[in-house]
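User: Predict the structure for this protein chain, please.
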Amino acid sequence: MSIMVEVYGDYAAFNRPELKVERMTYDVITPSAARGILDAILWHPGMRWVVDKIYVLSPIQYSNIRRNEVKSKISARNVRTVMNGKKNDLYIDAQADIQQRAALVLKNVHYVLEAHFDMTDKASPTDNPAKFQEMMKRRLEKGQCYHQPYFGCREFPAKFRKWEFETVNTAYPNTTKELGLMLYDMDYGKGEITPMYFNAVLKNGVLDLTNCEVYR
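Assistant: Here is the predicted structure, written as structure tokens:
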């Protein structure tokens, strides 16, 4: 059984993983980012969200910004040294490591996420689809979440609510837009993390994921 969730916000950044230095967003929210928003609202080990369709309600708009970031991370070697009882630095000096990076981000984003969930092998005997469906419904009605959903980066919070209408009027009716290869999700199996991609096509303002071919 599908559920429809409306999400919107001022800015979003769904960064392309192939670009390491400058940040450049995809044209629309990625399936993995959409699933992350649903997990932020309702997560349970006995279920897993599957995003079926993404409806684009606002025209795709871009903005260039510059952000302060740190260029280093805490060394794992230093952590092991401290764990072994020796002294070492376990902090990052933000003033010394700060640097500015340009980013191409989206602005005024507005989507409807259509999704369903699958039961997992970690579900308990008392878990069932009706239970999770009712839990999600209550959370959407009350605006509850486990943590604040966001659009790609934590500084871009996502507002959410239940979609109350039978139809969805998109920003691109009677239009087909080829978006190229897009990140679908990350495969955490076999001891390594492998990105998965798919050929994204926005047809009538809808990114249909139900029968998309995934490449590893």
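The helical segments are 31-41, 76-83, 94-97, 129-142.
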